[in-house]
Every structure is written in C-alpha cells, then in structure tokens.
Write a structure and sequence with these properties.
The protein is α+β, with helices and mostly antiparallel strands and about 325 residues long. It is about 35% helix and about 25% strand. The chain has two domains: about 150 residues, Gcn5-related N-acetyltransferase (GNAT) (Aminopeptidase), CATH 3.40.630; about 160 residues, Gcn5-related N-acetyltransferase (GNAT) (Aminopeptidase), CATH 3.40.630.30. It contains eight helices and 13 strands. Strands 1, 2, 3, 4, 5, 6, 7, 8, 9, 10, 11, 12 and 13 form a 13-stranded mixed beta sheet that branches. InterPro entries: Acyl_CoA_acyltransferase (IPR016181).
Length: about 325
C-alpha cells in the first residue's frame, strides 16, 4: 500500500514514543549538554502524547503521521503559537511546526516534504495566516524548509560549560527603580526587531505591558534580572530564566538549561555592525552565564533574530553556536 499522511490517534502512541525517542537521541548526539535525555524520557513522551491526543481540552496542537501499511515512518507536530503581549499580532496567532517533527531513518523519499505540507495545510485550516518552523540545525531540514519557501527568522544559539565568575562592576540586579530604563531600552530593542522583519510588529500598549511584566518578574525567584549603567541612563539589560517546553520536546531534561530572550545593550543598536564595540553587551552576557552556573545550569540558550548580525557576532565571539533555527514561510 502507498504511504498516507493522516491525523495521529491514541493507537499510534506506542510507535510514536519509539520514533520521538530516536529523534531525541539524534539531538543529544549533536549537543549532549543542551539536549540532555530525561531519565524517564519514555514516560514523559507518553504523557505529552496522551494529553495531546486524548485530553479533554488540549491546546490547539496538530499531530499527523506518515503511515505505510500500519507502520509509522514519520510524524509532524504543529500548534498555534500565542502572540506575546508586546507584539501586535495583526495577522493572528502564527502556526508553528515544532522541532520534534521527524522521520524514521528508512522513511520513503518525500516523507519530509509530505509531512511539512500536511502540517502547513492543517495550520491554515486552523486559522494561521503566518507559518513558521523550528528545527534543530542540520542540512536535511534546512534544505527541506528552504525548498518550501522558508527563510531564517530567529536563531537559537547555545553554549555549554558555563562558569561562575566575577561580575563586571557596572552590572547590578534589577530594582523597581530600573523598570523605566529597561522599558526605554526595550522600546529600542523592539524597533530594531521590527526594522529587521515586520513579523515583530509592536503592540500599541507594548511599553505598559512590558513594564507590568518586568515588575511581576521581580517577584519570580527562578530568574536573574540584571542591568548595566545608571538608573538615569541605563545602557542595557538581560534576563536569565529557566528553559520552557516551547523549545524543548518532552524527552529532554531542561533543568540544567537556561534561556536568554530579553537581552539588549545600546552597543547592539545597529543590527549590522558593532560600531562602538561590545564590551558592555559581552559583560551582560557573561553575567547571565555566571547566574546560570550559580543555579547549577550547565547550558545557555539565547534567542536572536537571524538578521541581527551585530548580536550574532557578539554571541559567536562568546563561544555560542546555532543550535536551532526558526524560519518563516514567505
């Protein structure tokens, strides 16, 4: 019988567990610190699949499989991605093809393309006007998405072997008095993002929303918030926080991974070049790494727009390499 693409069902869970564990092992082989395998990986994958495929009110998730006479040779995982409150989201929730979309080593030719097309169609049926994909860096998936019209939108760069080190004298923990300065720098950051790609269209109330979130974040004990410069003239900020399941499939243990998303310094204001150097930006980055190390986290995962060359240059100079790519379908 020819291979078909169909919606996944609870009866597929045993085969999907095996396939998704194999996929996780491939990521682990690329970077064992970032993609650590959970000691109960099989159980965690089974729980996630059970919730997605049998839960009473699961989030909008779409699981599809490539079925060849009853044997699952591939799976796609997609979802509608909530728009962060600082962005306008004028085109609604984008559709996201998740990084645990994968195929078996002996899958028939064309399985990858068929799964991606099926995921795109399902996301469009669910209302997505914009579709993005996330995949762990690798030639096979880069080529597959490129052929379907995707361009890199966001890079996720990682570094392991973090160290506890002395902090730059101008860096300090955030206080409530720093919030206005962080909001001002965040507005500059958002403008750079929008100039790089209109995907990051700013919400009209972004300043007030970001201020409220930063104020609430001060009460969260799981993260380190740091700034550099005076309260009157803040130069930059960085938030070192724990990893979430959005970027890491359930087979992976994320306890030892820290994520940096909110990170900006005036030295990075020109997305093309580091005109004034990057000493302050680098000091913030090293401070966040030290904060991770002090909490027992061994790997850092930094979110960076693919078009922000000066920021990428800073991260690469600090020893970071691209671990995952988020691309947008044009």
């Amino acid at each position: 019988m020819p291979q078909i693409i169909r919606a996944a069902t609870p009866y597929d869970i045993p085969q999907l567990i095996k396939l998704l564990l194999l996929d996780a092992a491939e990521r682990h082989a690329q970077d064992s610190a970032l993609w650590s395998i959970a000691h109960d990986a099989s159980t965690q994958v089974e729980k996630a699949l059970t919730v997605a495929l049998t839960g009473a009110q699961p989030p909008v998730q779409i699981w599809q499989v490539a079925d060849r006479d009853g044997r699952i040779t591939g799976v796609s995982h997609a979802m509608l991605l909530p728009v962060p409150p600082i962005y306008a989201g004028s085109k609604g929730e984008p559709g996201l093809i998740m990084p645990d979309t994968c195929v078996a080593p002996d899958a028939p030719a064309g399985t990858v393309d068929a799964l991606v097309k099926a995921a795109e169609d399902a996301l469009q049926d669910a209302g997505a006007q914009v579709i993005v994909s996330a995949y762990v860096a690798g030639e096979a998936w880069r080529t597959a998405f490129q052929k379907r019209g995707y361009d890199p939108l966001t890079l996720y760069l990682s570094r392991a072997h973090l160290e506890v080190r002395g902090r730059h004298p101008d860096i300090r923990p955030v206080s409530e008095a720093d919030i206005p300065g962080i909001v001002a720098r965040s507005a500059e950051n958002r403008q750079v993002l929008f100039d790089i790609d209109e995907f990051w269209e700013t919400h009209a109330d972004a300043d007030a929303r970001f201020s409220a979130w930063m104020t609430r974040s001060l009460t969260l004990a799981d993260r380190d918030m740091m700034v550099i410069g005076s309260q009157v003239e803040l130069d930059g900020y960085i938030i070192a926080q724990p990893a979430s399941r959005l970027h890491f499939p359930p087979a992976h243990d994320i306890a030892a991974v820290g994520v940096i998303d909110d990170y900006y310094h005036r030295e990075l204001a020109d997305p093309e070049t580091l005109g004034s150097g990057n000493e302050g930006a680098m000091a913030l980055l090293r401070a966040a790494e030290a904060a991770f190390a002090a909490r027992g986290r061994t790997a850092a995962f930094v979110v960076c727009p693919a078009g922000w060359r000066s920021k990428i240059e800073t991260l690469q100079a600090a020893g970071y390499e691209t671990a995952m790519v988020c691309s947008i379908k044009r």
